[in-house]
Amino acid sequence: MHPVGAVTHDHPPLGAKFVQAAQLLATHLSDHALSEPAALEVNSKTHQSRSTVQVSSRTLAGIAAELLAWADTLTTVTVQAWRPPTGNRVHLSMLSTLAGPVELTVYGGAPHDPTLLGDLAPNEYRAVTLGELRTWCERASR
Question: Is 0.70 surpassed by the pTM of this model?
Answer without folding.
Answer: yes
